[in-house]
Amino acid sequence: MYRLYDFLSSGNGYKIRLLLSQLKIPFDWIEVDILREETRKSEFLTKNPNGRIPVLEISANQYLVESNAILYYLSQNTSYFPHDSWYDAQVMQWLFFEQYSHEPYIATSRYWLIILNQPEEYQRELEKKKQGGYHALKIMEAHLQTRTFFVNEQYTIADIALYAYTHVAEEGGFNLRSFPSILSWLNRIEQKPDYVPITHRFS
Ligand SMILES: N[C@@H](CCC(=O)N[C@@H](CS)C(=O)NCC(=O)O)C(=O)O
Q1: Nearest alpha carbon, ligand 1 atom 2
Q2: Residue 75 Cα, ligand 1 centroid: separation in angstroms?
Q3: From the CA of 145, how far away is ligand 1's center (Å)?
Q4: Ligand 1 closest atom vs CA 11
Q5: Which residues line ligand 1 (CB under 6 A)?
Q6: Rounded Cα–Cα distance for residues 166 and 136 (Å)
Q7: Where are the domains of the chain?
Q8: What's the CA gap between 32 and 38, in Å, rounded?
Q9: Which of the following CATH numbers is that of domain 2-75: 3.40.30.10, 3.40.1030.10, 3.40.640.10, 3.40.1110.10?
């Protein structure tokens, strides 16, 4: 059975919880408290020397890290990955977009605001993240104006990767009211079978 090392309010961890739930794959869920720096302890660093969750333990001493790589691994031979070279590349395009142009702005702001709960301490940094975060949201909104899902009108890991931090973007101080296509897309995902919310505990 897979073992997922994770932290409940992490969007990167949630990507994996959501896909595992929708694939109906049982797994052991192990909480790693990032606020107590459990990710910096030597025992955890043997699993991921980069000191970050999520980590998927596939078998004894076989650990996979980086949320979007884990999504890719789990989605092979399922409907969550298209299996067509053009559409596969588009899924990868959105996974990289999420990590480079979306997560560093929206997830980081949310981390400072609701996980560390330090709005005053991070006020200046939060301001600097606004432009990049809204830029990512505008790109997503334009893409979704004529589409139901990100790639090939099919619900894939590209949607899951982008959903994780977009649906809680308001917790990072980003207002989604002027992004109607994003809001409809979020709603479509929430109607999918075996959807679980970010706070869902598996053990
Ligand atoms: N690129 C990585 C980012 C993972 C990441 O930033 N994890 C955070 C929680 S969301 C973490 O473990 N932080 C704890 C730490 O840095 O000590 C991924 O997508 O998995």
Answers
A1: 66
A2: 21
A3: 31
A4: 10
A5: 7, 10, 12, 34, 39-40, 51-54, 66-68, 99
A6: 10
A7: 2-75, 85-190
A8: 6
A9: 3.40.30.10
Pairing of strands 2-6, 27-31: parallel
Q: What is the domain class of 85-190 according to CATH?
A: mainly alpha
**Span from the CA of 178 to the centroid of ligand 1 (angstroms):** 29
The 10s digit of each residue's pLDDT in 109-167 is: 999 999 999 999 999 999 999 999 999 999 999 999 999 999 999 999 999 999 999 99
d(CA 136, CA 36) in angstroms, rounded, equals: 31
How far CA 100 is from CA of 5, 28, 107, 133, 148, in Å, comes to 23, 30, 11, 11, 23
**Ligand 1 centre from 54 Cα, in Å?**
7
